[in-house]
Amino acid sequence: MASKVPSNGPGRRELTIDEYYTGVRNGEVATLARALTLIESGNSSHRELAEQLLTKLLPDTGKAIRVGITGAPGVGKSTFIEALGLHLIRSGRRVAVLAVDPSSGISGGSILGDKTRMPELSAEPNAYIRPSPSAGTLGGVARRTRESLLCCEAAGYDIVLVETVGVGQSETMVADMTDCFLALMQPGAGDELQGIKRGLLELVDVIAVNKADGEGRADAEQAAHQYDVALKSISRQSSHGESPVVLTCSALQREGVEVVWQAIEQHYQQQQNNGTLMKCRGQQNLRWLWGLVEQQIQQAIHEHANVLKIRDALEKEVLAGAIPPETAARQILIALGFNNREHDET
Fold first, then answer.
1. Are 204 and 182 in contact (CB under 8 A)?
2. What is the pLDDT of residue 139?
3. Which of 79, 101, 201, 313 is most solvent-facing, going by the fewest CB within 10 Å?
4. Residue 181 to residue 200: CA distance in whole angstroms
5. Which residues pair with residue 247 across a beta bridge?
6. Which residues share a beta bridge with 5?
7. Which residues of 5-22 are buried (b: 16+ CB within 10 A; e: fewer)?
8. Average pLDDT estimate for 50-70
């Protein structure tokens, strides 16, 4: 008998895993939305059911182009994604956008709403926009973004765009779950270029300087030149051997957006042609595996009965300065059954 999935809200009939699978595979938006809610749930029983669903969907994934998009707040990510999404839909593609919003510190829910920031794209039947709260996850990538990406692929979306909260710790995380990493930049790169992290330049596959219109066009072109020089100065090549592409565009005027997409698609085709696409995705899966192991170990430690007995007292002592954090950490390990001193001696 197929497992029943708890309903996602009052008055909703519980769905079986088979019903979820069929609905997702048929591209039913309502079923996809409920499937992603199930995947994002922190409830342990939901997690088991979500794993069953993902296992069943896995053979139907992997056919989409996965694109990560990052950039500082105000650079125009939502405007760019809407312009890009509309361009792709008009060329016969189906587009899913996983837009990770900042989380409310009180409720944990999304503060922003990408459907309101992308009104034209959200009205398209071949587009699906899913705003997800980052819930405090390092770097602004939602805890289950990878699983959501796979679910969208199984639903028949052949382009999946992952938008992050902004430039920060998220670069490595989003680059490690996508095939092409795009960074949107502002015109007038002088000051921004001084503060930009070398790590970002080492991760990007495409840089697009946005707002290249009107009086800002010359500044955008100058910024693009500076980024190009910066990339050459660190002899930057991607893991696939080709140098990153630097372009300009105007998302607001919808100029140059198709050229940016051509660069993304060319990068993807090169990966397919030289055999690195599946290799890179395989390595991403391995890092995902061990990342999940670390997350689950940390959660298990916090929930362990022996740790719960001593946690509050140890935290108070650390806060009061009565014991160093290293001593408290050692006591937690001992409570878990690890004699840390024995490990140090061996």
1. yes
2. 40
3. 313
4. 10
5. 208
6. 15
7. beebeeeeeebebebbbe
8. 95
Tokens linked to 203:
């991760």
Strand order, beta sheet including 127-133: 127-133, 95-101, 159-163, 65-70, 180-185, 206-209, 245-248
Structural domains of the chain ordered from first start: 4-58 (1.20.5.170), 61-274 (3.40.50.300), 304-345 (no CATH)
- Write out pLDDT tens, residues 165-188: 665 556 778 888 999 999 999 887
- Picking from 78, 98, 82, the residue whose alpha carbon sits closest to that of residue 90 is 82
Read out DSSP for 43-104?
-HHHHHHHHHHHHHHGGG-S-SEEEEEE--TTS-HHHHHHHHHHHHHHTT--EEEEEEEPBP
Q: Which whole-number Å values give the CA distances from 68 to 11, 44, 76, 199, 310, in the listed order?
A: 37, 29, 15, 16, 42
Are 247 and 206 contacting, i.e. CB atoms less than 8 angstroms apart? Answer: yes
Residue type, 338: F
Name the one residue in this structure whose structure tokens are 């409920």: 34
